[in-house]
């Protein structure tokens, strides 16, 4: 079982992933659930994460390729082995991030990137929780943290295109992608997510 958490920067993914992880552990046992994230959550992945978030990249495709390298290693070192062991994998950011940021955000072609996903044999999530928050609220949350990374510095217009991307993806895959109103309080959002997990896991 693969569950992904998506949304623009500052949507509350890490906050909610922690809570969802606790719920899943309580229900299925610590040894049967893993919580991971992209980019970088694999042995050696910190190097790529740093490159992606802190380095100026010149070629328009460098960013895409680095995210894909990161995913290849993450999927085949962490995600697939856990799925094969029957574990529930909770992953912050995954393929929909690439579509929302690199296709809608940067303007790269959708079909080519989807072909690369297929070719790379990335497993398709069973459920994607899209935390949707108004842009101004997200920016406020990011700014309150202080220093911005390279992608966060791209500003409101970029983030607005990324949000449009998530909207399109939700409309395209309504059975897999659930929109969660992430402008509510942490506890309210967590409660909605608990319901979604309940529905998924009782089948
Ligand atoms: N990226 C990409 O372009 N292509 C790809 O394929 C992939 C990624 C995989 C990864 O950054 C970057 O890589 C990301 C997309 C791009 N863009 N950027 N930059 P990251 O992993 O460092 O950052 P992130 O994924 O955007 O996470 P984040 O900025 O840390 O946000 P978050 O996890 O969604 O939010 P949070 O840390 O849980 O909460 C943010 C703040 O809001 C924090 O102070 C919380 O206490 C507060 N918060 C959370 N929830 C609430 C509610 N409900 N009310 C009020 N305040 C809240």
Brief summary:
It contains 8 helices and 5 strands, in the order E-H-E-H-H-E-H-H-E-H-H-E-H. It is of the alpha/beta class.
What does the model show?
The chain has 203 residues and is of the alpha/beta class. Helices cover 56% and strands 13% of the residues. It has 8 helices and 5 strands, in the order E-H-E-H-H-E-H-H-E-H-H-E-H. The protein has helices at 13-28, 45-54, 62-84, 95-105, 110-119, 135-143, 155-172, 186-202, and strands at residues 2-6, 33-37, 88-92, 127-132, 177-181. The model has no long low-confidence stretch (mean pLDDT 95).
- At the first level of CATH, the class is Alpha Beta
> Order of strands across the biggest sheet?
2-3-1-4-5
Number of helices: 8
Uncertain segments are none
Query: What's the overall average pLDDT, rounded?
Result: 95
Tell me the distance between the termini. Answer: 12 Å
- Biggest β-sheet, characterized? 5 strands, parallel
Q: What is the general shape?
A: globular
Q: Roughly what fraction of the amino acids lie in strands?
A: 5-15%
Structural class: alpha/beta
Q: Please compute the radius of gyration using only Cα atoms.
A: 16 Å
Q: Report the bound ligands by name, code or SMILES.
A: ligand Z5A
* Range of helix content: 55-70%
Order of helices and strands: EHEHHEHHEHHEH
